[in-house]
Amino acid sequence: MKTDSFSEHAAIKKYKLPIDVETFGIGFYKILGDKHTTREHKISCEKALEAAQKAIDGGTYDLIILDEINVALGFKLIKINDVLDILRPNVHLQGVHEAVDIVLTGRNAPEEIKKIAQLVSDIGCEKHYFDDGQEAREGIEF
Length: 142
Hints:
By secondary structure, the chain is mostly helical. It is built from five helices and two strands; from the N terminus they run ααβααβα. It has a two-stranded parallel ribbon.
């Protein structure tokens, strides 16, 4: 869902963190200025899932973050069963890939994801400076 122009990417580069980042997003979906078709967004999500599967199976990583995947699911850019297919063999209780923790981010996680997850957090905003008309801040939102 994201391009490589967000603050977390900048922080990884700036501080030379030993983190591999692969970005497949082509920009926000159905937001003012989105110049891409739904099909193009779906293709980018499919490529991201393929890369996630390779990363999970590769044995190189102990933590894999699928950033904003729940948002992509909500927009139906990827199928829930395709996501479950790469997660189910990796659930710790089944004893496969126990060294790999997989984090899925994004709002409105589907119940099917919550059911197999070991940890579910819902972080909500109680107060935000956007509400007072302040614009996004460099280093925070972008």
